[in-house]
């Protein structure tokens, strides 16, 4: 595997850590922000104290990392049309992340009459969920058939189920006004951990080769 391909795939391993640290660091500058109750989008919402630099630290770098990983995925599994489709879906997820940063939600992120920016933000968020959910669904089958890893297939299935269940809990929390932030973090956390798992599996030949070299 070429160094460029390894670097591109390694972006998938970086994504969960960037998300965790970016959201945590941004929230430190938002007085009263509650990770259990508040949506991550509120960090970049109109009028938020972190509105200007939250997308610069979170949405835009993550969009770039997803795009780079999608390219690495396409190069690694270029022989499979379904794998290429999954790479395109990951790229669409990155575009959705870019959209949520370019179009901030309204103050509170749940207005009775959403602005155009809020509507585009919601559409971008929907694109993020649908694209990554579809990509993980493809790897339930591709994990065993293409990558030769039943573990990746089962991991993708577990993450797919967890993502769907948590988005239902998110919808219920949005209605009740309780613990939306928790369920959103569970939902997106599962998704980015799936990305990291896919990246690790895609890097497996290179890692195995390095291990053999180190032990000889």
Structure in words:
It is a single chain. With 216 residues, this protein is mainly α. It has one domain. 74% of the residues lie in helices and 0% in strands. Helix 3 runs antiparallel to helix 4 and helix 4 runs antiparallel to helix 5. The chain is globular and about 45 Å long. The C terminus is likely disordered.
Provide the descriptors you would attach to this structure in a database record.
disordered C terminus, single chain, mainly alpha, 8 helices, 216 residues
How are the SSEs ordered, and which strands pair?
Layout: H1 3-27, H2 54-57, H3 59-76, H4 81-102, H5 116-145, H6 150-176, H7 180-202, H8 204-214
**What is the strand tally?**
0
The percentage of residues in β strands lies in under 5%
**How much helix is in the residues?**
over 70%
Radius of gyration in whole Å, from Cα? 18 Å
Biggest β-sheet strands, sense, barrel: none
Intertermini distance? 20 Å
What string, H for helix and E for strand, traces the elements in order? HHHHHHHH
Query: Mean pLDDT across all residues, rounded?
Result: 93
**Which word captures the global form?**
globular
What's the number of structural domains?
Answer: 1
Q: List the total number of helices.
A: 8
Q: Structural class, from secondary structure content?
A: mainly alpha
* Low-pLDDT segments: 211-216
């Amino acid at each position: 595997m070429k160094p460029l391909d390894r670097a591109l795939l390694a972006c998938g391993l970086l994504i969960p850590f960037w998300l965790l640290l970016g959201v945590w660091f941004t929230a430190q500058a938002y007085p009263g922000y509650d990770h259990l109750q508040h949506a991550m989008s509120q960090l970049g919402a109109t009028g938020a104290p972190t509105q200007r630099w939250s997308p610069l630290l979170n949405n835009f770098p993550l969009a770039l990392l997803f795009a780079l990983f999608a390219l690495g995925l396409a190069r690694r599994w270029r022989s499979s049309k379904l794998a290429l489709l999954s790479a395109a879906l990951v790229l669409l997820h990155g575009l959705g992340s870019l959209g949520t940063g370019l179009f901030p939600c309204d103050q509170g992120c749940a207005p009775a009459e959403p602005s155009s920016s809020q509507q585009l933000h919601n559409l971008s968020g929907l694109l993020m969920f649908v694209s990554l959910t579809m990509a993980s669904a493809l790897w339930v089958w591709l994990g065993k058939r293409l990558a030769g890893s039943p573990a990746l297939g089962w991991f993708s299935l577990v993450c797919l189920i967890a993502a769907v269940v948590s988005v239902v809990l998110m919808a219920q929390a949005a209605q009740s006004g309780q613990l939306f932030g928790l369920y959103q973090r569970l939902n997106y956390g599962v998704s980015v951990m799936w990305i990291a798992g896919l990246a690790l599996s895609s890097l497996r030949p290179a890692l195995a080769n390095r291990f053999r070299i180190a032990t000889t």
